[in-house]
Design goal:
It catalyses: oxaloacetate + phosphate = phosphoenolpyruvate + hydrogencarbonate. Its cofactor is Mg(2+). InterPro entries: PEP_COase, PEP_COase_bac/pln-type, PEP_COase_Lys_AS, PEPCASE_His_AS, Pyrv/PenolPyrv_kinase-like_dom. It comes from Vreelandella nigrificans. One of its GO terms (molecular function) is phosphoenolpyruvate carboxylase activity. The protein has about 900 residues and is mainly alpha-helical. It folds into 4 domains: about 180 residues, no CATH class; about 120 residues, de novo design (two linked rop proteins) (Up-down Bundle); about 200 residues, TIM Barrel, CATH 3.20.20; about 230 residues, no CATH class. Helices cover about 65% and strands about 5% of the residues. It contains 36 helices and 8 strands. It has an 8-stranded parallel beta barrel with strand order 1-2-3-4-5-6-7-8, surrounded by 7 helices. α10 packs parallel to α17 and α30 crosses α34. The radius of gyration is 28 Å and the shape is globular. About 50% of the residues are buried.
């Protein structure tokens, strides 16, 4: 890392921080800015090991008058968001998305050359990329705490930084950009950073579409253009026109698991919104093409299509424009509940693609290749990736909801109680009904509102073109009958559309049995007939880690994938694994390149689906340059895993992991499930109780409103521990596992061997190291000091912190390092820069939580908002919170 690059980042942090200081001074006076600076100075010196300064920081915060608490939290929150902008800008400018390890930045050109040296022919490279199917699934899991209106301002601030950096020879441009920067930061300061209402699922979908409009619409053709150049250089040919190695799907408006706000009506509305937005974006493309394609030379096929006109391309594009305008008007009318009486509309991807392809071929045939490969090629690439719906919408529902439908149906038909049948009885019944030609569900069947909602969802599937929809995911799947039930409901209610059905294996037990379930399923001839020899399976990272602890869950996920690869190979079925990852390490998060290359060999065979969640969508895809780099990283990793797969683990490594996972799981369960003080401690020391009031997303924080930790969704579970910097779900149990092994003969040597030679284990340790560096037991101890009274709970907290410190020493021992993140200076620097701004928010949050509890949740509106701002600020400062 050169000195200049760090200087660039530091300069931008200073520019943004100074501007924010001036804005706050204009609003609240210089004396208030001096208070902020005093707090920051205490925090900074406290971070340098001055315990007196740490105490003075806490004392200063506690003595702040109540009127200052909200503006102080806002000031630190705003600075952390501006620091994120500076870092995003730096990463985009210097093509750095994943500063993970020196030299780990994958570059596609180098990889293509390596693949050729390993014996892959140029044709093989082109074919692999052309057939690659990487689907990035945008999900609205509610960790994106920043409002859309602020995101737009932050994007504009980023543009100002670019203008300032490029104005060295044009000082007047720099002055204009600086003036605009001051204006935008003032706008951000005077905008409420906390939503007053939860977003609806439709709001979340609009946010996802906005990412496509503002970033991916530009990044996708740029990515293909770069790929074309690389392939021409290394393989001598372009990527086929209709190839789309990376595509986008969405859960926003389709994920009904535990979210009663996602209904069939909402799903229908989101599908229509996608059609409207796609039509609107394509209209801009088509208008540009109509302006530019004024040529008169054309081939006979195009002449036959448009007749003998002077400007054949414009004639064809005018017709397309008319249809696209009608499509937009139709979608708007449907959204407004009005009838549409306009002309014919574009309903499928091919209706748009074919005429554009005719223009492209004509231009090439008459020698105008340069023009063909300009804006027209960009639009063709967009159609290949986005179709006419922008994304494919996945649908997700819990297995128990489908079983409830079957229970009500069999009971009302006098066939018995489905819920009481054995798995064999269920399979026999479902398979016979799948083969039957008569309908099973009576036309006027009276069922519960819950079952009616499930059936209405399948009706939406029946009314849609298949290309608008992605996969039907069954959460908490555990048996073949869970999949057969969905297949039957799709046949009964879904009409001609049959979507891929993916069981989601989430708990430790489900992961351990995933291979056996899919083996049984694929052995059923009645099911195989429906699959077209393809099977998708989703691996759950969040719930498995919450259920078993991170170490045991990671090994279970690995073994489940191995089993699934072997089962599908045996049955001659193409497998696509769908990774349900979150942003945090505790939910499977981490750099995409390392994560993909740490999967079992053969599990990434040209196809991959992975969720991109919450705030990570903005960090990876929110700006065209960053999105371009993120797509390159995914393409690189999948290409490498396909053509140059990692070696299979040595048998003795597997035995080591079995033992480590067993010890780690027992230690995790011993605390989380078996210690009676654990749940009371969690509720007392974290802001979990207040999280429900933070209007993050459309989904409730709990699957059920009663019960303990097991009913909490994985996101608030992780979010609450992250807020107090203990990060417990991602490390608890690992310390015991590694300590025990290090005490045994040869333990250190074998762990270091696994770390250097096995990508799975090396990546696990790297993620653990990063997580330990972000955690802070002193901050967790302060929350406990302020919020926990019960001696037995305090004793548990002390033990947890001791476990953490032992783990840190053990990890440093295995890594042979003196301190964490020695080899990843940018991550270390990013944490160090942010800490003096996050620390005051922790102090204020603990204080506000205590006041909130003292007042039984009846604190003033300003204090309640200040509490929410501390959560948003800590989330912004730590970035990957969900």
């Amino acid at each position: 890392m050169s000195h200049d690059l760090h200087e660039s980042l530091r300069d931008n942090v200073r520019i943004l921080g100074d501007s924010l200081g001036r804005t706050i001074a204009d609003d609240l006076g210089q004396s208030f800015v001096d208070k902020i600076e005093t707090i920051r100075a205490h925090a900074k010196r406290g971070r340098q090991g001055d315990s007196l300064q740490q105490r003075q920081l806490i004392e200063y915060l506690r003595q702040l008058p109540e009127r200052d608490l909200l503006p102080v939290t806002r000031a630190f929150n705003q600075f952390l968001n501006l620091a994120n902008i500076a870092e995003q800008h730096y990463r985009a400018r210097f093509r750095r998305v994943e500063d993970y390890k020196p030299g780990s930045q994958p570059v596609l050109g180098e990889l293509l050359r390596r693949a050729q040296q390993a014996g892959n022919s140029p044709r093989k490279l082109v074919e692999t990329l052309a057939n690659m199917r990487v689907e990035l699934v945008l999900t609205a899991h509610p960790t994106e705490v920043i409002r859309r209106t602020l995101i737009q301002k932050y994007d504009a601030i980023d543009e100002c930084l670019t203008a300032i950096e490029s104005s060295e020879d044009y000082p007047e441009r720099g002055a204009r950009a600086q003036g605009r920067l001051e204006e935008l930061i003032s706008q951000a300061w005077h905008t409420d950073e906390i939503r007053h209402e939860r977003p609806t699922p439709v709001d979340e979908a609009k946010w996802g579409f906005a990412v496509i409009e503002n970033s991916l619409w530009q990044a996708v053709p740029d990515f293909h253009r770069d790929l074309d150049c690389l392939l021409l250089d290394t393989a001598g040919e372009r990527l086929p026109l209709d190839a789309a190695p990376i595509r986008y799907a969405s859960w926003m408006g389709g994920d009904r698991d535990g979210n009663p706000n996602v209904t069939a009506k909402v799903t229908q509305e989101v599908l229509l919104l996608g059609r409207w937005m796609a039509a609107d974006l394509y209209l801009r493309d088509l208008e540009q093409l109509k302006t530019e394609l004024s040529m008169w030379k054309a081939n006979s096929a195009l002449r036959a299509e448009v007749g003998d006109v002077a400007e054949p391309y414009r004639e064809l594009l005018k017709r397309l424009l008319t249809k696209m305008e009608a499509t937009r008007d139709w979608a708007k009318a449907a959204l407004d509940g009005r009838n549409f009486d306009g002309g014919p509309i574009i309903e499928t991807r091919d209706q748009l693609y074919a005429p554009l392809l005719a223009c492209y071929r004509s231009l090439c045939d008459v020698g105008l290749d340069t023009i063909a490969n300009g804006a027209l090629l960009d639009t063709l690439r967009r159609v290949a990736v986005f179709g006419v719906t922008l994304t494919k919408l996945d649908l997700r529902q819990e297995a128990s909801r489908h079983a409830q439908v079957m229970e009500e149906l069999t009971h009302s038909l006098g066939l018995g109680h489905y819920q009481e049948w054995s798995e064999t009885q269920r399979q026999e019944f479902l398979l016979s009904e799948l083969e039957s030609r008569r309908p099973l569900i009576p036309r006027r069947w009276e069922c519960s509102a819950e079952s009616r909602e499930v059936l209405d969802t399948f009706k939406v599937i029946a009314q849609e073109h298949a290309e608008a929809l992605g996969t039907y995911i069954i959460s908490m799947a555990g048996q073949p009958s869970d999949v057969l039930t969905v297949a039957l409901l799709m046949k009964e209610v879904g009409g001609q559309v049959t979507l891929p059905i993916a069981p989601l294996f989430e708990t430790l037990n489900d992961l351990d049995h995933a291979g056996g379930v899919i083996d049984q399923l694929l052995a059923l001839p009645g099911y195989r007939a429906l699959t077209n020899d393809r099977q998708e399976v989703m691996i759950g990272y969040s719930d498995s880690a919450k259920d078993a602890g991170q170490l045991a869950a990671a090994w279970a996920q690995y073994r489940a994938q191995e089993a699934l690869v072997n089962v599908c190979d045996k049955h001659g079925v193409d497998l696509t694994l769908f990774h349900g990852r979150g942003g945090t390490v505790g939910r499977g998060g981490g750099p995409a390149h390392a994560a993909i290359l740490s999967q079992p060999p053969g599990s990434v065979n040209g196809s991959l689906r992975v969720t991109e969640q919450g705030e990570m969508i903005r960090f990876k895809f929110g700006q065209p340059d960053i999105a371009l780099r993120s797509m390159e990283i995914y393409a690189c990793a999948v290409l490498e895993a396909t053509l140059l797969p990692p070696p299979a683990p040595e048998p003795h490594w597997r035995e080591e992991m079995d033992q480590l996972a067993k010890v780690g799981h027992a230690a995790y369960v011993g605390v989380v499930r078996e210690d009676p003080d654990f749940v009371p401690y969690f509720r007392a020391v974290t802001p979990e109780g207040a999280l429900g009031r933070l209007p993050l997303g459309s989904r409730p924080t709990k699957r059920r409103q009663d019960g303990g930790v097991e009913t909490l969704r994985a996101i608030p579970w992780i979010f609450a521990w992250t807020q107090i910097r203990l990060m417990l779900p991602a490390w608890l149990g690992s310390g015991e596992a590694f300590s025990q092994r290090l005490e045994q003969p040869g333990g250190r040597e074998v762990l270091q061997e696994m770390r250097s030679q096995w990508p799975f284990f090396g990546t696990y340790l790297d993620m653990l190291e990063m997580l330990l560096a972000k955690a802070d037991v002193a901050i967790a101890a302060y929350y406990e000091h302020r919020l926990v009274d019960e001696p037995s709970l305090k004793e548990l907290g002390k033990k947890l912190r001791e476990r953490f410190e032992r783990l840190e020493n053990v990890v440093l021992d295995i890594l042979q390092q003196e301190k964490l993140l020695e080899n990843t200076p940018l991550i270390r620097q990013a944490i160090d820069v942010r800490n003096p701004y996050i620390d005051p928010l922790h102090g204020l949050q603990a204080e506000l939580l205590q006041r909130n509890r003292d007042a039984d949740g009846a604190i003033s509106a300003d204090l309640s908002r200040a509490l929410m701002v501390t959560m948003a600020g800590i989330a912004a400062g730590l970035r990957n919170t969900g």
